[in-house]
Every structure is written in structure tokens, then in C-alpha cells.
């Protein structure tokens, strides 16, 4: 376990896939997550009550759960305000990034592929960074959101489920280091090069 870090689960979110209009087309998405109160069951394929619309890029054993640092929400409110998006505070609650878990105290720079997050009732393993798509632009309300994520590195990360169980907002968790060969920021920047040209 890495010492001197207070880590906690700020909130838990799920969503059912639904059709929304993006750029004039009806698109199936589950990016619009809503908070869950009380314990949520965690299986090998993710949280109970959560769906993924496009299994080629989300979900499965390696991307069962998506986690995002709560600390980045201020950045996104500021960026959206500069982009002219209205109703900043009311439209950017936890889950707005499409994440299942909003974490306190754990940033991308602290995380490596293979690290383990040990919660009281389940164990999750860091698998890879999130790669934003055009649906993220729509969710944020402006076309430059994917580029802003690429530039900032504020991507969050996917988790696989080592030990199923339950998760609940307010729980503390521990970060146990894995092999530490590839950091989340290194892997994310390598994948996001195309958005930065």
C-alpha cells in the first residue's frame, strides 16, 4: 500500500443505454450516468444496473468499471464556461464524465497499469486510460472537449474486477502498487497523439 494518501469513493454512478441526438443523428449511449445511493453490486463485467452502448470501446472484463478523479471537475467547469456552455454548475455533477466511480485523492499521475484498488467489499485493478470519443464532446456541450482531455491528461482510468462484491459512496480504499511498468499518463499520451497534431 502507498502511504500518506487519503483515498475515498466520492460517488457511484450507473446508466442504462438510451438514444440521444448527436450532430443530428440518433446515437445509443450510456455516458449520462446518475448517482446511486446505497451499496451497488460489482460483478466481473461491472456495476449492477450499468450498461455500455458500444462494447467495442467500453465494457468487458478489462473495462468493467470507469473511475474518474473528483479533483478535475473544477477544470471542466472552467473549460465549459470559456467555451460558452450554459448552466455550468447544474449540468456537471459527478458522473458527467461518464464515470462509474468518482474518486477523491487519486489522480492519473498516481496510477499505473496493474495497480490494485482495495475497497472494503471488492477489489479492482487498473487496466488502461479512458480514450474519449465524439460522445464526450456532446456530453460536455462543446466540440473541443476531446482535445481538452488529450491536452490535460485528465482522462480517468478503467478497472477490471479482481474480486466481485459491493461498492458504496463514502467508502475509503487503498492503492496497492502493481508492477509499475507503464503509467496511466504515459499510455494515455501515446494514444492521444492523433488528437494533438
Describe the protein:
- The protein is of the alpha+beta class and 197 residues long.
- The chain has one domain: Beta Barrel (M1 Pyruvate Kinase, Domain 3), CATH 2.40.33.20.
- Helices cover 17% and strands 29% of the residues.
- The protein is built from four helices and 13 strands.
- The chain has an eight-stranded mixed sheet with strand order 4-1-8-7-11-10-9-13.
- Strand 5 (40-43) and strand 6 form a beta hairpin.
- It starts with 7 loop residues before the first strand and ends in a 5-residue tail after the last helix.
Short note summarizing the structure:
This protein is an alpha+beta fold and 197 residues long. It is built from four helices and 13 strands.
Main β-sheet, spatial strand arrangement: 4-1-8-7-11-10-9-13
CATH topology tier name: M1 Pyruvate Kinase, Domain 3
CATH architecture label name: Beta Barrel
The fraction of residues in strands falls at 25-35%
CATH homologous superfamily label: PK beta-barrel domain-like
Can you write the helix and strand succession as a string?
EEEEEEEHEEEHHEEEH
- Sheet having the most strands: 8 strands, mixed
What's the helical proportion of residues? Answer: 10-25%
* Average pLDDT score: 90
Number of strands: 13
CATH class (first level) name: Mainly Beta
Computed CA radius of gyration, to the nearest angstrom: 16 Å
Coarse morphology:
globular
Number of helices: 4
The structure class reads alpha+beta
Summed up, the domain count is 1
* Low-pLDDT stretches: none
Report how far the terminal alpha carbons are from each other. Answer: 38 Å
Amino acid at each position: 500500500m502507498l502511504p500518506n494518501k487519503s483515498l475515498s469513493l466520492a460517488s457511484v454512478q450507473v446508466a442504462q443505454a438510451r438514444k440521444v441526438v448527436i450532430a443530428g443523428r440518433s446515437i445509443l449511449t450510456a455516458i449520462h450516468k446518475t448517482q446511486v445511493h446505497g451499496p451497488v453490486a460489482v460483478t466481473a463485467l461491472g456495476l449492477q444496473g450499468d450498461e455500455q452502448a458500444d462494447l467495442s470501446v467500453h465494457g468487458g472484463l478489462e473495462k468493467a468499471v470507469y473511475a474518474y478523479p473528483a479533483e478535475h471537475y473544477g477544470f471542466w467547469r472552467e473549460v465549459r464556461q470559456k467555451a460558452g456552455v450554459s448552466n455550468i454548475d447544474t449540468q456537471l455533477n459527478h458522473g458527467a464524465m461518464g464515470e462509474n466511480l468518482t474518486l477523491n485523492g487519486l489522480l492519473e499521475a498516481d496510477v499505473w497499469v496493474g495497480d490494485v484498488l482495495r475497497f472494503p467489499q471488492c477489489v479492482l485493478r487498473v487496466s488502461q486510460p479512458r480514450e474519449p470519443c465524439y460522445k464526450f464532446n456532446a456530453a460536455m456541450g462543446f466540440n473541443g472537449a476531446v482535445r481538452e482531455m488529450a491536452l490535460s491528461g485528465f482522462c480517468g482510468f478503467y478497472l477490471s474486477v479482481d474480486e466481485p462484491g459491493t461498492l458504496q459512496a463514502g467508502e475509503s480504499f487503498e492503492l496497492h502498487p502493481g508492477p509499475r511498468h507503464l503509467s496511466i499518463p504515459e499510455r494515455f499520451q501515446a494514444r492521444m497523439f492523433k488528437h494533438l497534431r
